[in-house]
Automatic annotation (TrEMBL):
The HisPMQJ complex is composed of two ATP-binding proteins (HisP), two transmembrane proteins (HisM and HisQ) and a solute-binding protein (HisJ). The HisPMQ-ArgT complex is composed of two ATP-binding proteins (HisP), two transmembrane proteins (HisM and HisQ) and a solute-binding protein (ArgT). PANTHER family: ABC TRANSPORTER PERMEASE, ABC TRANSPORTER PERMEASE PROTEIN. It comes from the Bacteria. GO terms for cellular component: ATP-binding cassette (ABC) transporter complex. InterPro entries: AA_ABC_Transporter_Permease (IPR051322), AA_ABC_transptr_permease_3TM (IPR010065), MetI-like (IPR000515), MetI-like_sf (IPR035906). This is Histidine/lysine/arginine/ornithine transport system permease protein HisM. GO terms for biological process: amino acid transport. One of its GO terms (molecular function) is transmembrane transporter activity.
Length: 312
């Protein structure tokens, strides 16, 4: 046996030595810095171009709450809301018709979706507005009869052109949501004695809403912007109001910038509503919902008042 110097050996009950700290060298992301410099340079050039242009920036806040501008904004929001109501109701009906085993109803629904998705909404607006050239009267015998020019107003032309076109897109969104629900849900509901209609209302549609809501929110925002096309049928909307005010006051470009600002404000409000609506319907699929932006801000503010030791 070899002699071992016991003085150099640590005692058996001694704690293990602490490992040396790891010297982590951060990865250099030079591409990010280059991209940031390029983007900031482009933004600076854009601001410089607008700053050097002959733009009367004072006219934008001056006409921000002009009566004509607000009237056009109100009409834009109204036509957007009513068109989406027609689109959502019609889309649900068409989606159920597409799912039907009746070949007549499914074929009619397929043809409707094929036609309205295949033609531009701008053409459809012009078509509704100019049908008076071939139909002089509208005659629904027991209900209504009038001249077509009095019946098909710019408002009704815009409503039909936007709403019926939107129904075709909403039909496909609703059909995708209904197909996303497992067939076993329907079979289990029928085994419990529930009718087909009650199964749709109580079982299928609530689960399909989680799939339907996000694209529907996008369609609402898209409808708000697409509503600017109703200027083609002489409906007084935000764009028409901005053009009229700009032509009368001599600040055409400034009023178009003002119209863009109002569109951005409206789409921002709709985006916030869409976020919370999606969060509401995500309760059944997520055990813990992610914090809202307001909750994240509050958490960051609360964390800033805490000391490093943990005490407030």
């Amino acid at each position: 046996m070899s002699d071992v110097d016991q003085s150099t050996q640590p005692p058996a009950d001694a704690p293990p030595p602490h490992p040396e700290p790891i010297k982590a060298i951060p990865v250099r992301h030079y591409g990010r810095w280059v991209a940031a410099v390029v983007v900031l340079g482009l933004v600076a050039l854009l601001f410089r171009a607008f700053a050097s242009g002959d733009v009367n920036w004072n006219a934008i806040p001056q006409y921000m709450f002009n009566g004509d501008i607000l009237k056009g904004l109100r009409n834009t929001l109204l036509i957007t809301f009513l068109s989406m109501v027609i689109g959502i109701v019609g889309g649900v009906i068409l989606a159920v018709m597409r799912q039907s085993k009746n070949p007549v109803t499914s074929s009619v629904a397929w043809f409707y979706v094929w036609f309205f998705r295949g033609t531009p909404v701008y053409v459809q607006l012009f078509l509704w507005f100019n049908l008076g050239l071939v139909f002089h009267y509208i005659d629904i015998m027991p209900i209504y009869k009038d001249e077509w020019s009095d019946f098909m107003t710019p408002f009704l032309s815009a409503l039909l052109g936007l709403g019926l076109n939107e129904a075709a897109y909403m039909a496909e969104i609703c059909r995708a949501g209904l197909n996303a629900v497992d067939e076993g849900q329907t079979e289990a509901a029928h085994a419990l004695g529930m009718s087909h209609g009650r199964t749709l209302r109580r079982i299928i549609v609530p689960q399909a809403m989680r799939v339907i809501v996000p694209p529907t929110g996008n369609e609402v925002i898209n409808m708000l912007k697409t509503s600017s096309l109703v200027i083609a049928v002489q409906y007084y909307d935000l764009l028409q109001a901005a053009q009229n005010v700009g032509r009368d006051s001599g600040v055409v470009v400034e009023m178009l910038i003002l119209a863009a600002a109002w569109y951005l404000i409206a789409t921002t409000v709709l985006s916030i509503g869409q976020y919370y609506l999606e969060r509401y319907y995500a309760r059944g699929s997520s055990r813990q919902l992610p914090p809202t932006p307001l909750q994240r801000i509050r958490a960051q503010l609360a964390g800033g008042f805490k000391r490093p030791g943990g005490a407030a």
